[in-house]
Amino acid sequence: MELNTTSEYPVFKEVQHPAWMERLGNRVVSASEAFRLGLAWLFELGIQPEMPFYLKNNLGLINRVTFVSLLLSLPGSFVLMLMGFDHPFTLLVVSVLILCSILVLNVARQVQWAQALFAFSPAATLMTYLLVELSSGGLTGNLLYILARQGVCLSLLLPIFIYGFEKSQRWVTLGECVIVFLAFEIASLRTGSLLFADAPPLVRGFFSLLSVLQLAGLSACVLYIQGYTVRHDQQVAKTAEKLQSMAIHDGLTGIYNRGFIEQVVGDAINRARRSNTPLSLLLVDVDYFKQVNDTLGHNVGDAVLKRLVKLIETSKRSTDYLGRWGGDELLLVLTDTGLDGAHLLGEKLRQRIDSHVFPSNVHLTVSLGASAYQDGDSLPTIIGRADEAMYRAKQLGRNRVAP
Questions:
Q1: Of 281, 253, 251, 235, nearest to 379 (Cα)?
Q2: What whole-number distance in Å separates Cα of residue 184 and Cα of residue 285?
Q3: Which of 63, 100, 160, 193 has the fewest CB atoms within 10 Å, counting from its CB?
Q4: 142 in helix, strand or coil?
Q5: Which helix (H) or strand (E) holds 65?
């Protein structure tokens, strides 16, 4: 029985879309991309890279809330009109002007003014509107009045949220909000509040006290959350800094490890190639360091190595880089220094180390190999010449510098 190894599949013709559909699709994609870029620009108004994280978050929140509030202002006015308020469109016009002013201030990078307007304008607008409604008799229901008071209380949390991250302004802002709320309480009672109209003054005072305690309690919750956020962010930053330091520094000596010093040499080579400036390396190897570990122990060897690193660090320039290349090998990257300068510094280091008394009265000598950047050099070639020079120094009797 023969098997047919070839299979025939039906051939489908490519569907040809009309040209107008392709143009429409391209326009839709372009419009959506432009809308996305526009929103990204709007949400980042006034934000600078050097700002603290909480200020960036505040400005991002301000821009987003302002944009959403502009979108909801017109439907919100109709909702207020259906609820029985008399002047909803006056509130609409004032709110739109304030929101547009906030965006303009952020565009002009007047961050402090934008924050202040965003923080206090909702409460001020709402309180003024409610007092006008109370005085004109437009707000007649106790339930609406209670909801309006809650709205004032919540709007006064906004300054706490905006300025609560700054310790110098935290309690001042809270005090200002409490005073403003008490002033609103007194003004609302004098303009004809129907809530507890027949109740004695003591009951009204107790109700006002409860409202103030509510504001203070909610503010305390906001401040606690903000304090926790700041502490958590500081802990994360400290942990990240520690991890970064561990990634590029040697755990014993504290100088750069081999991985990072290789990056330093690579960057220095690129800089020397671009700017045509000299660059040299010094490879330092401790003579007979294994005998120190074998006779006195590794703890003494570690202490001696740490002292050696400190001695070299005090002898180099601030523009030079020191890293641990191997067990007892150290690499010095000498920027803007030719081979002669590297040899002079190596001889200075050799003499200082030879005359220095290390922990446990250990006497050390070092062999140093120098190399300078040449056209076409790479990381392996320039370090390879320094390594060869260092071995020549050992072959010539150690305790010397070889170019």
A1: 281
A2: 78
A3: 100
A4: helix
A5: helix 53-82
Alpha carbon separation from 201 to 180, 196, 208, 293 (Å, rounded): 20, 9, 10, 87
Q: What is the chain's alpha carbon radius of gyration, rounded to the nearest angstrom?
A: 37
pLDDT 10s digits, 80-121: 677 666 667 777 777 788 878 877 887 787 878 887 888 888
Q: What are the pLDDT digits (tens) for 262-302?
A: 999 999 999 999 999 999 999 999 999 999 999 999 999 99
Picking from 359, 383, 277, the residue whose alpha carbon sits closest to that of residue 310 is: 359
Q: Are strands 329-335 and 279-286 parallel, antiparallel or unpaired?
A: antiparallel
Cα distance between residue 367 and residue 346, in whole Å: 9
Q: List the alpha helices (DSSP H) in 257-396.
A: 258-275, 289-296, 298-313, 339-355, 379-395
Pair type for strands 321-324 and 329-335: antiparallel
**Can you tell me the distance from the alpha carbon of 50 to that of 163, in angstroms, rounded to the nearest whole number?**
18
**CATH annotation of 258-402:** 3.30.70.270
Spell out the domain ranges in the chain.
31-240, 258-402
269 vs 334: CA distance, rounded Å = 11
The 10 Å Cβ neighbour count of residue 387 is 19
| Bridge partners (DSSP) listed for residue 368 | 284, 401
CB-based contacts of 152, cutoff 8 Å, min separation 6: 123, 126, 127, 130, 181, 184
